[in-house]
Amino acid sequence: MIDKNYAPQEIEQKWYAYWLENKLFASKPNPEKEAYTIVIPPPNVTGVLHMGHMLNNTIQDVLIRKARMEGKEACWVPGTDHASIATEAKVVAMLKDKGIAKSDITREEFLKYAFEWKDKYGGIILDQLKKLGASCDWDRTRFTMEPSLYQAVIDTFVRLYNKGLIYRGVRMVNWDPQGKTALSDEEVIYKDVQAKLYHIQYPLVDGSGSVTIATTRPETIMADAAICVNPADERYVHLHGKKVRIPLIDREISIIPDEYVTLDFGTGCLKVTPAHDLNDYELGLKHKLPVIDILNDDGTLNEKAVLFVGVDRFEARKRIVKQLTEEGYLTKTDEYKSTVGTSERTGAVIEPKLSLQWFMKMEEMAKPALDNVMNDNIQLHPAKFKNTYRSWMENVRDWCISRQLWWGQQIPAFYLEDGTVIVAKDKKEALRIARDKYQLYALVEDDLTQDPDVLDTWFSSWLWPISVFDGIENPDNDEIKYYYPTNDLVTGPDILFFWVARMIMAGYEWRDELPFKNVYLTGIVRDKQGRKMSKSLGNSPDPLELIERFGADGVRSGLLFSAPAGNDLLFDDKLCEQGRNFSNKIWNAFRLLRGLEVVPGASLPEHVLATAWFTSKLNQTIIDVQDDFSKFRISDALLSIYNLVWDDFCGKYLEIIKPAYQSPIHADTLRDALSLFDSLMRLMHPYMPFITEEIWQVIDERAEGESICKAEFPIAGPVDAALVAQFDVVFEVVTKIREIRNSKQLSPKLALALHIKAENQAAYAPVEAILVKLANLESITFVADAVADAQTFVVKADQFFVPLANDEDPAVVKAESEKELAYLQGFKKSVEAKLANEKFVANAKADLVERERQKLADAETKIQSLQELLARLG
RNA sequence: GGUCUUAUAGCUCAGCUGGUUCAGAGCACCUGCCUUACAAGCAGGGGGUCCUAGGUUCGAAUCCUAGUGGGACCA
User: Fold this and answer.
1) Is the CB of A749 under 7 A from strand B?
2) Protein-contacted positions of strand B (CB under 7 Å)
3) Orientation angle between helical segments A363-374 and A502-511, nearest 10 degrees
C-alpha cells in the first residue's frame, strides 16, 4: 500500500540522480531542433542560496523544462561569478583569522589562497540548486575567472582600448575606504541619514568681521580652497574678493561669487572643497582652485590636513566639532536630513576622491542597447521597466572599470619606466608593441610593469552570454552560432543596469546582435511584513530547510503561487504549505486510481461523457497556459493548472468515475483516466518536476532512461463549449442540492429524491447518472407541475424540487425568492436599457450585442419560473 | 528634489483591447462532516464605497486630470 502522505525526500533524490545519470539536461547543438537557451545569472562563487535565488532559478527551470518538453534543444548554462570585492573581502578576513595580513604577502600568494578558498567553498550554491531540481547542463558549468573567460575579458579590454572606448584618467570617483578601491556609480547606494548641519565662522583677514558657512562635513575645512557666495546675494556683495582665515589652521582663502550657490540653503555661504565633493570639484575647475586632498585611502586624515593626522574621518569630525566649539567658531548646529552614498559591497560611506582610474566611454555603446529595448527587439517583462531603462541609458556616464584589488582580471596595461602605457593581451605582446612602436629594441620584459589593478566584476559578467560559449575567443564556433542569441534572461530589476544593460551593449559590440530576446524581471522576496530579507534581520528562511519540510515541488509551486513578474513577493511559509498540500492532493488522486480493482469492459456512457468533458477543460487550460507563458505570466499559468487539477479533475471528474466502495472500475474508464492523468503530469512537470516524474514513471510502462523531462508537453485539442456549459448546469444543480442538505443538516449519506420541471427533459438524460452520484439522489423524476412540500430552486429556466417536510417559515422562503426575482428583474431592465440604446447597438461589437440578447432571453425564462414558484408559495 | 509605478475582500493579488448585475482567486474566517484517495481532506457560507474628487463615454474597477497614501529608480 502506498503511503497516504506524499514523502518527497527520497523521491527527489532518486529522480535527480536518475536525470543526471541519463544526461537528460545535457545539450549539444542540434541543427534539427530549435535552440532554446538560458544562461544563469551567475551567483557569487562564495555565496549561499537565498530566497531570491530560489524564485529566480525556479522560474528559469520552469521555462527550460517546458521548452525541453516542447522538443526544443534546451540548454541552461550554469556557473558562478568571481565577485571581486565580496570574495576578496572574505579571503582577507579568512587570512586575518590565520594571522596573515594581505599587505604581508605577495599578489601570487594571495591569489593562491583565494583560489584555494574558492575551490573549498565555491560552488556550494550550485549543489544547492540541484536540490531545487534545477535542470542545468552541469557539464557546462563556467566560472568568470577560469582561463577562457579570463582571456575573454582581457581581449575585450584590448579591443575597446584600441577602439578608443577605454581610457585612463584622473577623475572624481567613488572611493570605498574600507575596500580601498574605486567603485562605479552603480555600486554606490544612497541612504537617508539624520545628519547635522554645522555653522562655522570664518574670520575675515582684514579683521572686519566674519562669514558663516554651513556644512555637514566640518572635518574637511582643512581642505577648503575658497568660500563661495551667489553673486545675486545682496548680503555678501561687499565681500567678493576678500579673504578669510580657515579656523584652527589659519590658512587664507578667498571669497568668490558663483551662481552655483543656492541663496536660501544654510547661510548662503558655501565652503568649496574640491578634493572631497564632486560639485566642489567642478566649481574648483571653473575657478582654478587648488585641490587639497586631506584623506588617505583608508579614510584617515593625512599630513595635508595639518590637524588630526592619522585619525579616521568620523573621529576627526567629532574632535574638530569639539575644538571649534571650544574656540568659539561653531555658532550653531542644526538637525539635517541628508543622503550619504555607501558601498554596495562593504557598506562603508563613500568618499568622492580624485583618482587615476580606467574608464569606459558609454555613450556610443549605450545607443544600440537603448534602441533595441525601446523598439522591443529585446522585451522587458513587465514592460514598465522600459521607462526606468531609458532614463538610465539616456543619462549614462562613463564607467569606472578599475578596482584596487587582486581578485579579478588584472588590467592588461603595461607601463614603461617613463610611464608610457601599452595595452596588450600579455607582456610579450606589449614588449613587441613597445619595440615596434617606439623603436625601443633594447627593451626586455622586466622593463615593463603591469597595472596592479583588476577590472570591475561586471566587466566580466557583461560578456557572460557570449563567453560561456567561448564566443569571444572563438567567435565562429558551432556552439555560439547555435545557442546565441539566447532566449530568455531571468533576473532581478536591481541589476538591470549593472548587468542586463551592459550585456546588451556587449552583445552588440561583439556580435552585432542582441544577447537575449526576453528579460523577465522578478520581484524581490520579502518577508510577510514586507521587509527585505536579510541576514541581519534573520527573517530569511533557509531554502534547504524549506525543501526538507515541504519538498522541492512544494516550495517551487509555493513560491510561484504569488510571484507576478516585477512585483515583490511577500513570502510566507504558508505558500510552501499550500504547495506541499497540492503535491499531496496529486499523490492521493493517483493512489485512488492505483488502488482500484479493474474489470474488463467498456466505460459507462456517463463516464465517456465525463472524460469528454474533462478533456475539454484540459484543452482549454492548455490554451490558457500557453497564452500565459507567451506573456510570461508564469504564476497565472500555475494557478490555472492548480484549479484544473484540484477542482475539475479531483473534485469533479474523479468523483464521477470513482466506483462505489469495493466496486471495480471498468478497464476502459481507468485507461481514459490514466491517460488524462498522464497529460496532467506533463502539463505540471515544469513546475513540479519530481512528483510528476514519480507518477509518470508508473502510469505506464517506460523504457530504461526514459523520462517525463523529455515527454511531450500537452498540445491542446478541441474544446466542446456546449458540453462544458451542460456540465456547468449539472454542477450548479449539485451545489444547490448540497446547500439544501447543509442547511437542513442532513447527512450526505441520505439519498434524496429530485423532481425536475424541465423545458427540455431530454437534455438531462445523458447526465442523470452524474447528478445522482454527485448529489447522492435516490431518484430523478420529471414533473409537469410544481411539487408541494419541497425545497425548490431554479437553474436556468428549469425548476427543481427536493421533497422534504418544509419546516421553514414560508415567509422567509418567499422573501428569498423575491429577492432573487428582484435582482433578475433589475438585471433584465439594465440589459433592456442597453439594447434599447441605439448608440450601444450601433457601437458595440455584434457578438457582444448578441450575447446581451441571449442574456435577456435567459433572464426572462428564469423570471418566469421564479414567478410561478412565488405564485405557488402564495 | 526628479522620473516612473501602484492603490480592488482581513492578507497577498487577478481582473489582459472600456461591454455578462463584475466585482474574482488563494489564504484567513464561520458552519457541518474522520462520507475508506486525500482532515495536508470534503461540503457549504459570510465578507469589498474597486483610495478621493472631477472628467471622457451609450457604458468606467478598467481611459484622462488633480489630490492623497504606498513602492522603485535616479540625484
Assistant:
1) yes
2) 2-6, 11-14, 16, 19-21, 25-28, 31-33, 35-45, 57-59, 71-75
3) 100
Q: Which of A191, A507, A187, A492 is nearest to A372 (CA)?
A: A507
Q: What is the mean pLDDT of residues A206-225?
A: 90
CA atoms within 13 A on the CB side of A14: 11
Distance A610 CA to B38 C1' (A): 21
Question: In this structure, is the CB of residue A9 within 7 Å of any atom belonging to strand B?
Answer: no
- The three cell numbers locating residue A368: 544600440
Nucleotide nearest to A829 (CA to C1'): B21
**Nearest alpha carbon to residue A869 among A798, A774, A765, A783:** A798
Q: pTM of this prediction?
A: 0.91
For all residues of chain A together, what is the average pLDDT?
A: 90
A4 touches strand B (CB under 7 A): yes
A30 touches strand B (CB under 7 A): no
One-letter amino acid for residue A313 of the chain? R
Q: Which three cell numbers stand for residue A843?
A: 457601437
pLDDT digits (tens, 9 = 90+) for A681-740: 999 999 999 999 999 999 999 999 999 999 999 999 999 989 998 999 999 999 999 988
For chain A, count helices (H), then strands (E). Answer: 28, 31
C-alpha cell, A675: 491517460
DSSP A204: B
Which parts of A536-692 are beta strand (E)?
569-570, 598-599, 665-666
Cα(A819)–Cα(A69) distance, integer angstroms = 52
Determine the nucleotide nearest to A191 by Cα–C1' distance: B75
Local structure of residue A685 (DSSP, 8 states): T
CA distance A79 to A50: 16
Taking alpha carbons only, the member of A97, A85, A99 closest to residue A178 is A85
Q: For the packed helices A667-684 and A634-643, what is the interaxial angle rounded to 10 degrees?
A: 160
**Position A600, amino acid:** P
Q: What is the pLDDT of residues A618-644, one digit of tens each?
A: 999 999 999 889 888 898 899 999 999
Q: Could you say which DSSP state residue A248 is in?
A: T
> SS in 3 state form for A489-525?
EEECHHHHHHHHHHHHHHHHHHHCCCCEEEEEECCCE
User: Based on C-alpha coordinates, what's the Rg of chain A?
Assistant: 37
pLDDT computed for residue A2 by the predictor: 67
Hey, is A793 helix, strand or coil? Answer: strand
Nucleotide nearest the Cα atom of A635 (by C1'): B14
Give me the CA A859–C1' B11 separation in Å, rounded.
37
Complex confidence, ipTM: 0.94
Question: Which residues of A749-830 form beta strands (DSSP E)?
Answer: 752-757, 777-782, 790-795, 798-803
Strand B closer than 7 Å to the CB of A438?
A: no
User: For A28-64, what is each residue's pLDDT tens digit?
Assistant: 999 999 999 999 999 999 888 888 899 999 999 999 9
The answer to whether A626 CB is within 7 Å of strand B is no
pLDDT band for position A341 (cuts 50, 70, 90): confident
Chain A residues 138 to 197 with C-beta below 7 Å from nucleic strand B: 185-186, 188, 190
Decide: residue A145, CB within 10 A, 0-12 exposed, 13-18 middle, 19+ buried.
buried
A312's grid cell = 579616521
Instruction: Spell out the residues 6+ positions from residue A378 whose beta carbon is closer than 8 angstroms to its own.
Output: A372, A504, A514, A516, A517, A518, A519
Those residues with Cβ within 8 angstroms of residue A507's Cβ, 6 or more apart along the chain or in another chain: A465, A466, A485, A513, A514, A515
The Cβ of residue A629 has, within 10 Å, a number of other Cβ atoms equal to 17
Cell triple for A273? 572643497
In chain A, residues 574 through 593 whose Cβ sits under 7 angstroms from any atom of nucleic acid strand B? 574, 578, 580-581, 583-585, 588-589, 591-592
Sign of dihedral through CA atoms A551, A7, A69, A707? Answer: positive
Please tell me the predicted confidence (pLDDT) of residue A485. Answer: 96
Judge if the upstream peptide bond of residue A485 is cis by omega within 30 degrees of 0: yes
